[in-house]
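Chapter review. Work through the record for DUF4817 domain-containing protein before attempting the end-of-chapter questions.
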Amino acid sequence: MDNYSNADYVEMLILYGECQRNARLTCRVYRERFPDRQRFPTHGLITRLVNRARESGYVGLNHIERVGRPRDQIREFSVFSVVKRHHLEQLKIQDLFYV
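Structure tokens for DUF4817 domain-containing protein:
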């Protein structure tokens, strides 16, 4: 995929919904609404974007290789350290951290 910003990808998804999930129509409407942009998506890009969003829940590409603990382990460590420090009920802390 081209290097569009996350805001561009979100705009494409919104237009895709407005265009009754028609990728070709989405491309035409995008070009009409944003004539001053330097590049325009193809119907293939829109289709790949929609598929990626459905499969992974993400719109943008992630080229950063993560190093360190997985986020779930960090979140779990944070929850338990707060419970230990403050002697609070685990359920209240989990609600605080959206676990």
